[in-house]
Prior knowledge:
This protein is an all-alpha fold.
Amino acid sequence: xxxxxxxxxxxxxxxxxxxxxxxxxxxxxxxxxxxxxxxxxxxxxxxxxxxxxxxxx
Length: 57
């Protein structure tokens, strides 16, 4: 005879699946933000080099 489980099914796995779903949504949002901002950051770095600020430390 098996001893009873310490946790219910929800506590064992269902919450983990819910959290993974939330993580995927947050990750997708972050990736979309990075894609939008990438062009702005690239242009800023290019401008920085063109005015000689890349040599300032």
